[in-house]
Structures are given as structure tokens and as C-alpha cells.
Amino acid sequence: MTAPQIGAARFIGQRVPRKEDGRLLTGRGTFVDDIVLPGMLHVAFVRSPIARGRIALIDTSVARDMPGVHAILTAKDLSRFKIDMLTFYLTLPGIEIPPLATDRVAYVGDPVVMVIAQDRYLAEDAAGLVAIDYEEEDPVVTIDDAKTGPLVHPGSESNAAAVLGVEEDEDLEALLASAPHLVTGTITHQRVSQSPMETRGVVVDQQGDEELTVYIACQSPHLVARYLSQAFGMPNISIRVLAKDVGGSFGLKVQPWREEMAVIAAGMILRRPLKWTEDRLENLTAANQAREQEITLRIAFDADGKLLASHADYDLNNGAYPHGPDCNIAVQMFMWAAYKMPAFGFYTKGWYTNTVGLAAYRGPWAMESLARETMLDIAARQIGVDPIEIRRRNLITKADQPCTTSLGIQLEDITPAECLDKLLETLDVPAFRAEQAAARKQGRYLGLGIATYIEPTASTGSIGVMSGELAQIRIEPTGKVTATLSTHSQGHGTQTTMAQVIADQLGVPYEDVSVFEGDSSRGGFGPGAAGSRQGVAGGGASMKAAKLLLDKVKRVAAHLLNANPDDVRLENGVVYVAGAEEMTRSLREIAEVAYGEPDRLPPDIQAGLETQYRYTPPPVTFTSAANACIVEIDAETGFVAIKRWISSEDCGVVINPAVVEGQIAGGLAQAIGSVLLEEVSFDARGNPTAVTYKDYMLPAISDVPDFEHVHASTPSKSEGGFRGVGEGGCIIGPPTLVNAIADALSPFGARCLDLPLTPSKILELIEGRTILRKASGHGAGPQAAAVDRPTAVTASEPDATPIGEAAEPQAAPPLEPAPATAVDGLWKMVLSTPMGPQAMKGRFATNGQILTGTLYSDMGDQDFEGIVAGATLKWDLKVEKPVSLTLKYDVQIEGDKLSGKVKMGFFGNAKLTGERL
Amino acid sequence: MSEHRIEVTINGQAHRATVEGRLVLGDFLRIDAGYTGVHLGCEHGVCGACTVIVDGCAVRACLMLAVQADGCEITTVEGLAAPDGTLHPAQQALRDEHGLQCGFCTPGVVMTLAALTGDDKRPSADTLLAALSGHICRCTGYQGIRRAARRLAGAPAGEEPA
């Protein structure tokens, strides 16, 4: 496609050429490793070769004497700064996260020493000469290890990083047990690496005492600047963060990690510009990773295959230092959001282990779609319903809306059922079934997989850091348009799409609009590319700002040309007055007056043609999709060939179809990687075993088919009608492909829900062998390390899947009478919320059995009343954010400590701990 | 550390340098010669981002030492477009087909396509796609890259295998 002709009415919806491509195709982009500053030195890290242990001795003397080495720094040297490593939500993580290891190491790759030298070659030479003695301990590698093994963070209460939900819910168990059909399955997702082609990197440059400039590969320079400001807590320094071109991120570069923080601190100590560029070995071993999780999902259906109830038991490996203690509550929130599910309960847990920490990866909650959609297919077979039909019977359609899901999510315009209908207009299922049957007779195994989902995009307003976006637009005296946006591209093409929106709304040529982003000193705060939000929030901001600016142009031009503002129109950069052709002016002529001759402007109008708008979209904008994929499995080799893939997506008004399809295709390719190829694995001692791209296999061009796209384009309620599209492919892709593989393997009566589905696993299924999950980890004790624990994850006869697996009821321990306790006074407390630990203070006063008090937190101060019974305090508190909930506190006081739980509505119980102040 | 005098031609410009024996060609091109369009993605020869053309052949600049390039003619992505800015057909095809997003792997993809289609060669789409299987792109799902390769291939459109 070529660009629309000058004068085309609309740019929204066009496949215009990208503004980014000119520089990127000719090698003139500016990535962080391209930054070279005078006097710049280079950093290499000395990293822990063991997963768990104590640092006994660090000897840097030989390395320090090497010519070209400028400094060697350890945690002790960095301790002159008090660095608070923060969660993605910019809260404290609840565990101590040192930029460099202090007395202990917690995973293989843990940075211990920094070597700073004239060039990277010398820095790595010297790093090899640093001698460190460790006292090694048995590591905690897997989720199972974490449940029983030693504490990953000594001094913490347990290895549970975060827990929400209800462990035993009798009412739900009764519903599940009495249902005509109950389907149960366990789905295991391997750990993956986000693997942006550009690794992490940072260049730090402190100028004098008061200015700090940081170039960093990131998802939002504004967010990094805010993070640095909070983490270093240095009020007297101005921080500027720059990131022009970023080579992909996919969740990894959302926040600065330990290495980046160590380099920035070292730059401020040495007062020399420093550069650290992560190499791929470091990226695959020491950059935070994602997705290692397991879920057991139970789904109850009535006799007609309609949903009755469901329960999910979920565990997530957080590694040692995650992006925040995380039990992935979004998995539960969106598990059944698109379906008519009367009752759903969950128990969701995150676990610390001696592995590299957890980070976001495109669609961090994607496990919900994988678990639900694969289990729906299994249920369809078990109940004897077609997989398409079981979705049709249960999906929320347009006619069902507006409605509120069982977890309190409000829906008004989701369209997964409509996306499925559109998909089936493109895919002839009966014809495929005939082809499949014929192929099977020839010993060829074809399979069709279908999945549907909705995705929450552009979440705004409920979590502080997820703000709206700012657009500042000006028409220059030259008549050209300059926009400074809070959006940021790591491949998203926001310079292009935002220019399309602005050109479209203003009425100027696309070529005349320049978009600038990537500099925290320009424009305003925005969290950047996180949560499929920039099209919605940035697009909306660009629309609104452009409209304001157009109004001003009209008023100025009307005044100058003695016309009515309603008769003025701006088209293709030319100002026209209706019915007065002789009044036609170029935008430049109007702009020159607006800047240079303010006395000719209306008296109430400011000189210049500049405006800004901060747009906050609705709290959530949902995108819907249905996907289908056809595979052929080679029964001799176990290889999966993807023959066809159709994406039917409703992402609202499409700004640029090429960009939207690019986002979907990129996500789907990553999904293919997760299902078939990619796996970060560890041995029993916690050593990573996939440390190059020879072992960690990313999808190549030969692994990814041509995708077919169907766009439904139902306008959303947000400005411009846009919906987010960044993560969707990576969420809906895995179940679509897994379902296709299961369909192809159905003649063998086998299924496998243990990713990745490598050729050897598929061959084992075909040959009827029981799959043994790879022995990874179990390093908690020598006896565990020595044995491969066989875990069958196959049901050789899907129709014979056991039904009904009610959890064993456990009697609650009887309450012991508590001694008289001093309650009154001021307490400090930490509540483990879905967004990480939240610190607060509480003042309690008792009067007999009446408790009164106030809670002081970031959310404001709230008074409450409750009851006291011995050492037990109970009170309720209503909160409005992130969603409207009544929190039920149930707290026990023991001396100067308190502990207890807070029932947070459908989120289940959260832990509360505290001490007297 | 052994040092070697080398002479290379980069994008038509003669360069003389003294390099350590261990200096990788990719680092030499980026750091010493200033061609930062050479992107090092994995430094072990898998991802292909650092591909440059050495004496007419596509070569991974991370797997070759600078000293091995002595006497060679090297083209980087900066040297492909015409002096008036007209893009090389490989660059233009990727641009027209939306074959890039973040642009980090792009220089390598461009150089492989340029090497195989140089001197007006028109290899089949299969040949080009086989060569591209040595390039990792994490953003695009290869859709635009494949369309660009088909456009550059010799076989007429529509006769290519799906």
C-alpha cells in the first residue's frame, strides 16, 4: 500500500508508511549502545555461579591492578546510597533487593561485583580475575521446592511471595461436586525469556551535583525517571531519562533492574559516564524472566454443557527478586470474564525461589486463556459437544450486555461471540473436518484449534502508575506540526500512528506532522507501552489535543479573515472560509500572525498555536478476539507444521491496519515460541541450561505461517473508538495452537498440557508412552536432587478423565482464649495486596468490646469501628480502588506484634502483619 | 595482546587501523569505525542482526575477527542506499511491506537480502526464505519480512509456495 494522496480526508485507518522506518532501515537509529560520551567507561559484572549461598570472601586485588581497570565496586561501595528497589507499581517490594549482592547470593547470575574499565574487553578480563569464595547451600529451584524448602529470603515468614483467594470454599465445592459434568486438568507453562533482540543497556552521565542524565533501554523514560527519583530519594538532583530507539521489550524493560541501578549508582560515585550493555548470555540468565506457572482448573457444566461453576488453583514462580511479589491475580480476574460463569473461586499463590526473578511478559495473565480454552475443548469432547458449540452456549454476547461478571468486572461492549462468527465466515469447518477425515486414512494427522478471549486494555485510573497520556501539539510558525507525546515505542510505531491521528483531526498532511517522544524532560508522565494502552490513551490524547488546536486555528483565522469560526475549515494544511474562496490562506500565514503579531489576535486569545491535553480513558477498554489454527503433525517425527492461522480481532477503530496486524502477528509468533520451542530450564542445582540461542529456541521465519486477519472494528467508548492490541496475540495464540495439536492427536487418545510441546513430547504421546515431566530443580535436599520425580501429565483417554476431585476438608483450628492484650496505640502494618505490599499505620482505641480507629495509608486516612474479643480485632472498611470492595479485617494481637488476614471480597484473603510503634 | 595493522574498505571508504587480534569485526565496525547500524543481538552467530557484506557475501560480524577482514571490502547497512537517499530495493521492500517494528534485527535482514539480490540476481523466494531462517525477529512474526522477500524474488508473484 502507498500513502494516501495529499488531500485524502482521513489518515485514521490507512496503511501509511512508518515514520520510524527511514532511520531504522539505514542503520541511523539511536539505540542505547549507540550512545558514546567523552570519557565514558565500561561495566562488566561478576556474577554468582551458585544459586544459593553465603559470600565468604571477595578478593578484587589482582583485578584492580590490571591496566585499564578504573574501579571495582561491591555492595559496600554502593551503600553510600540508600537505594529502594521498587515494584512496577512503584511500591516497596516487601523484601530487601540490593542492586549488588550483599552477604548472600540468591540465584545463578546474581550480580556481586562491578568492574569498570576502559573498554568492555578489559572489563570482562578483569571480571575474570575477581576471586569470590562462596559457602554453597542447597537451592530452592521449583515451585514445589519453595513450598517445603528453606527460606529464599532469610528472615521472611515463608517462601510465599503473595497469596490470594480462598483455600477451601465449601459452597463452591458443593456446586462442583453435584454438577452433571466436572472437568479437571492441570496446565503447566514453562519459564520463558522475553528476549527482545536488543538486550538491556544503560548509559549514565552525572553532570555536576544537580543533573543526572540516563540513557536506558526502557518502555517509558517517564516511568524510569519517576522510579529513579523515588528509588534514590535525592531531592536536589534533576533526572533526565532518554530512550530514542528501543529494540523490543515485551515487558522486560518496564522498570530498571538491579544491574541498571548499580550502574547508575556507580556513575554517581565515579563521576564518569558509564555504559553497561547486557550481553545475550546475561540476558538469558540474569534478566528477569516470565511465565513459570501451573494451574489446576476445575469446571462444572450442566447436562447441556452450560457452565455452572469453576475453581482454579494457581502457582507462579517469582524467582528471587521479582518485579513485585506476584500471585498474578489478573489470571483469576479474567479467567471467565467473557463467559457466563455463575460461580468461580480460586486460590492463587506466588513463590520465591533461588532463580532469576519474575518480570512481565506480553499478556502476563495469559495463563487464563490457555487454561480455560484448552479445558473447554477437553470438556467439549467429554460432554460430547462440538468445541465451537460449547463456546457459543457460554460466551457473553452483545445481547447479554451490559452485565457484571462473577468477579465484579463490568462489561458493556465485548464481542468474542461476534468475532467467532466472523472467523467462521472465513473458515469452512465442515470442509476441514472432511479433509481431516480423509487425511487420517492416509496416516496424516491434521488438527483444528479454536479459542476466544477478551483482553483488558488501557487500564487507567485504578492503579496509580497506570495514568492517562499527555499530548502537546503545536503548529509551528512554519505551518508544520510538532507533537510531543508521553507515549513510547519499542517497535510499536507510535511516531506513525499518533501522527496519523493528529493529521486526521487537524486537517494537515501526514508528512507535516512530527512526533517526538522518548525524553522524560519533554511532555509529561505516562507509563508508556504497558498493558496495551498507547493506542487508546495516547491516541485519545492526540485526538483531544488536535481538536483543541483546531478550534484555536478556527478562532484565529475567523478573526483575521473577518469570518464566522464555524465557516472556517482546515484541510490538507490550508485554511478555507466557506463561500469565500479569496479568503483561502496557508496554515503558515495564519501561524505567522499567531506567533509574530499578537495584536492582530482576538483579545482573549493567547499568542501562538500550542495546546496540550491529558486524556484519561475509561478504566478498562476491552478487546475481543477469536482465533483458529490448523496444524499437521508428522507422526514419524513429532513435528508440528502450522498450515493456516486466522485471527479475528475486534480492536475497535483501527488507526493503521499494518501496525495493528504487526502487533497481532508478533504476539502470535511469540505464542508459537511458547507452545513449541522456548524454554528456560534449570538443573537441580539451579544452573540455567538454556544460555544461548542455540539452546533457547526462538521462532524463525520457517516456524511462523502467514496470518490471515479479520477485523471486526466495533468502536470503543474511548476517544476515537480505539481498543488496545499490543498483547492479544500472545494471549490467544497459545490455546489456539495447543487445541489444534490436541485435535490432531485425538486419534491417539492422548493430550498434553505441559508446555512446550516439543517433537519428543509429541512422539511420546503418539507412541502411547507416559510423559515424564523433565526433572528440573528439586534441589531442596540431596535425596530430592538425585531423583527425577515422575509426574504424569497425560490422560491417555480424555473421555475417562476422572470427575470430581473435591479438596479434603480441613477442620479449622479451635480458637484458644487469648490473654488480656494491650490494643490501644499506634501500629505499623503491611497488607499484601494484589498490587504488592502496602504499608500503612493504624491507631486503635478500645472501649470494652468496641474498637475505634483510623488507618493511615497512601490511599488516604479512613476511620473505622469494629469489635474486640480478647486479642482479636475485627472491623470492616470500604475502599473504592482498584475496585469497589469491602475489606474485612480479622487481626490477632500478640504482645507488640499483630498478624491476621483481610478478606478482600472476591480476591479472597490477604495477609496482614504489623508491629507496635 | 597481539596487535595487527589492517586495511579495509567500509562502504567505499578506506580505513586503516591497528587492532587487537581478539577484536570482533562487529565491535570494530561499531566502535572503531562508527557504523552503529551493525547491531549485535546475540554475539554467537544465531540471531543474524549483525550481518554485513564482506567481499560480496553476507557474513555475521560477530563470528569474524577484525583482523580476518584485512584487505576486504565491507558494506554495512549505512552503505546500501544511494547517495541521493534512494533506498536499496531490499530496504524499500521492507519499508513497503511493513517488515520491521523495533528495527534492531532489520540491518541484518536487509544485508542478507541485499547480498542475495546483489548484481540484479533474482533468486527464488525459497532461497531467500531459507537464508532468512537464520535471522531472528522478535517483533513482526516475519509477516512483512516474508512479503518483502517474495517481492524481491525472481519467481513471479502468485507462483510462490504459501
Largest sheet of chain B: 5 strands, mixed
CATH superfamily of the largest domain in chain B: Beta-grasp domain
Kindly state the percentage of residues in helix of chain A: 10-25%
Oligomerization category of the chains in this entry = heterodimer
User: Could you give the count of β-strands of chain B?
Assistant: 5
Distance between the termini of chain B: 52 Å
- Report how far the terminal alpha carbons of chain A are from each other: 67 Å
Number of helices of chain A: 21
* General form of chain A: globular
For the record, the CATH architecture of the largest domain in chain A stands as 2-Layer Sandwich
Q: What's the overall geometry of chain B? A: globular
Q: Strand order, biggest sheet of chain B?
A: 2-1-5-3-4
The CATH superfamily of the largest domain in chain A appears as: Aldehyde oxidase/xanthine dehydrogenase, molybdopterin binding domain
Q: Please tell me how large the radius of gyration of chain B is.
A: 16 Å
Mean pLDDT of chain B: 94
Give the biggest beta sheet of chain A.
8 strands, antiparallel, barrel
Helix and strand content put the structural class of chain B at alpha+beta
Q: What are the SSEs and their pairings?
A:
The complex is a heterodimer of chains A (917) and B (162).
Chain A: H1 21-25, E1 41-47, E2 53-59, H2 61-64, E3 69-73, H3 75-78, E4 104-105, E5 111-117, H4 120-127, E6 131-136, H5 143-148, E7 160-165, H6 170-178, E8 181-189, E9 201-207, E10 211-216, H7 221-232, E11 238-242, H8 258-270, E12 274-277, H9 280-286, E13 293-301, E14 307-319, H10 329-335, E15 343-352, H11 367-383, H12 387-394, E16 403-404, E17 410-411, H13 416-426, H14 429-441, E18 445-457, E19 469-475, E20 481-485, H15 494-506, E21 513-516, H16 534-561, E22 568-571, E23 574-577, E24 585-586, H17 587-596, E25 610-615, E26 621-633, E27 640-650, H18 657-677, E28 707-711, H19 728-744, H20 759-766, H21 782-786, E29 825-833, E30 836-847, E31 850-857, E32 860-869, E33 872-879, E34 885-894, E35 897-904, E36 909-916
Parallel strand pairs in A: 1-12, 10-11, 14-15, 20-21, 27-28
Antiparallel strand pairs in A: 1-5, 2-4, 2-6, 3-5, 7-15, 8-13, 9-10, 9-12, 13-14, 16-17, 18-26, 19-20, 19-25, 22-23, 23-24, 26-27, 29-30, 29-36, 30-31, 31-32, 32-33, 33-34, 34-35, 35-36
Helix pairs in contact in A: 10-11, 11-12, 11-19, 15-16, 18-19
Chain B: E1 3-10, E2 13-20, H1 25-32, E3 51-54, E4 57-60, E5 73-75, H2 89-96, H3 106-117, H4 125-132, H5 143-152
Parallel strand pairs in B: 1-5
Antiparallel strand pairs in B: 1-2, 3-4, 3-5
Helix pairs in contact in B: 2-3, 2-5
